[in-house]
């Protein structure tokens, strides 16, 4: 059973990572095209609304999808009851967003935002209708189906957005993508699962799941304010052009985080939840997954820090040059999220959602205070505050999360030291190469060459000097259904 779980976990992780690589290219391709078809103001107008309404997205499933996945046993009656609750929440959030539309327009002093908010409101009910179908696939570890649906829905949204932008619909192209993608995903979840929920019944035992989901939702709500207040205040004080620049820079930085978090997070949460009563295997799985996430993320953090100017020019175009300094300032947060996200999966898989809420309640005021102090210095100052507070917070966060679990703080530091050492070596090699290359070649050529040097140096050091080769070989063995002992040079173990 455990060996089967291991195989499913490895195969699921690789499937999700493969899908997220495809999604990464889709999103980057869409960003490159849309950045050239639309103006910073177009992005800024939609970003203003989503910064405000995004907080409501934490209520769209009320944490009930995670509650379903974390629970060891669940009945059809419970799933049906949760479906109708999620659908009701989606409808309520749509109505609430419609009510907030005039207030958002007044807050930002731009009447255009009223219509944008009204259109975006319907995404909540589309999401609510698919939450439990998606959770069912994740609980059954059917990650190939999940990956296919998510990729398809993203592709449909991008095609509509690019077509709309090319026809001159400006910010409405981005609105259409935000609404069509969740609708397409929900239709896919319904068709693949073939599950039709029954009518809601009382007394089916969902109260504990509602408590778990409610606490998780409150945690996410607090965290949302911590990580998105920057966009609200930049848009309010510096206007749509500034938030357009800041938002695209933030998107370039967050795409690697979001893709890897989505790919590995779903699988890790499912697997760790199944192992919550087996601390030895839980520790083993967690540390391997943590090292993998950090190893796959660090090169992107280095690339954003070292290659920002050429990266922004190639990906967004010449009119977005101001975004390069923001990308550079935000680049450390990619690595930091690769450290704090996995300990969050551990915390929630063990049912420690109350601790997660306490952590968020301490962290959020620190982040918001940082933004407030830096606001007079514009988007660059806010970006610097974001990275600074995150950097100071990361070690206390990890220590608080792992306290009293099967994972020690020392375990996490040891698992992180080899990827971080490889990152330091790759950074030195890349800077040296930049000094040699200088201003030769075009921005595109420099970006390709420097990226190749960075990634080659990083994975060369990580695999062959830092000794991580066995970890990646075990993933290949798991994908092929082999036992680790069947792979030459691979240490035995679960």
General description of the model:
With 494 residues, this protein is mostly helical. It has one domain (2-483). It is built from 19 helices and no strands. The protein has helices at residues 2-37, 40-53, 64-70, 76-108, 112-120, 123-128, 131-139, 143-166, 171-193, 207-274, 279-306, 308-316, 323-330, 332-349, 353-374, 378-402, 409-437, 443-464, 469-480. Helix 2 (40-53) packs across helix 5. The protein is globular, with a radius of gyration of 22 Å. The two termini are 12 Å apart. Residues 479-494 have low confidence and may be disordered.
Query: What is the average of the pLDDT values?
Result: 82
Total domains, how many? 1
How much strand content do the residues show?
under 5%
Separation of termini? Answer: 12 Å
Which SSEs are present, and which pair or pack?
Elements (H helix, E strand, L loop, with lengths): L1 H36 L2 H14 L10 H7 L5 H33 L3 H9 L2 H6 L2 H9 L3 H24 L4 H23 L13 H68 L4 H28 L1 H9 L6 H8 L1 H18 L3 H22 L3 H25 L6 H29 L5 H22 L4 H12 L14
